[in-house]
Design goal:
With about 210 residues, the protein is mainly alpha-helical. It has helices at about 1-10, 15-30, 35-50, 55-80, 95-120, 125-135, 140-170, 175-210. Helix 2 runs antiparallel to helix 3 (about 35-50) and helix 2 packs parallel to helix 4 (about 55-80).
């Protein structure tokens, strides 16, 4: 976390900060280890305190990058679906138990409640990758996907920038503390959303398993 805080402080006033946010957010669509959320939150806190980067430009860049990243992930899923032999072989990483469970959940969820799943999955790093890949691989209509992921991307960007800005205002004059606290809170809320969505999915699965055919 110290590294992220230091990096945010270093780049906040740079003209390249928006490009950095854009690249990290797009990469985060494929790689859960890329800390796009924490960077956006940290910069939101600094924007509130230091006046740079701008809050609205920051949110706009993060939203556009989120939509682009999700669309590229969707495209990867579509390519896997159309690849000869895709039904018989898969990349090694897709054979991991957690990935298999996530893809199975995403397939069922998209069939039953696509809008809700696409809107909420954007806030769950591993979940959004599974949902976006599955949407592409199962032939989900891209125009509908784009509309839903655009709404989700805007909400995600405003949420992360808003969390940072809130703590930037609370800890006025203390940029390091504002960044650190906002990151901790954002991560905590993300974990809560992840655990909550998993709990809801398990309860639904148990209910459906007990319904007589």
């Amino acid at each position: 976390m110290d590294a992220i805080t230091d990096a945010a402080l270093a780049v906040a006033g740079s003209p390249w900060v928006y490009l950095l946010v854009f690249v990290l957010t797009v990469l985060d669509a494929f790689l859960v280890v890329v800390p796009s959320e924490t960077v956006v939150v940290a910069l939101g806190a600094l924007a509130q305190q230091e006046g740079q980067p701008g809050l609205l430009p920051l949110a706009a860049v993060a939203a556009v990058a989120a939509v682009l990243g999700d669309s590229l992930t969707f495209g990867v899923g579509r390519l896997v679906r159309g690849r000869p032999g895709a039904g018989r072989t898969s990349p090694r990483w897709m054979l991991r138990p957690r990935v298999i469970r996530a893809v199975r959940w995403a397939t069922t969820a998209l069939d039953r409640r696509a809008a809700l799943v696409l809107l909420t999955a954007r806030f769950v790093p591993f979940g959004r990758i599974a949902v976006n890949l599955t949407a592409g691989a199962t032939g989900f209509r891209y125009p509908r996907f784009l509309a839903l992921t655009s709404i989700a991307g805007v909400c995600w960007a405003l949420y992360n920038v808003g969390v940072g800005a809130f703590f930037g205002a609370v800890f006025a004059g203390q940029p390091v503390l504002a960044v650190a606290v906002s990151i901790v809170v954002a991560i905590g809320l993300g974990v809560a959303v992840d655990q909550g969505s998993a709990a809801v999915t398990r309860r639904r699965a148990r209910r459906e398993a007990t319904v007589p055919e």
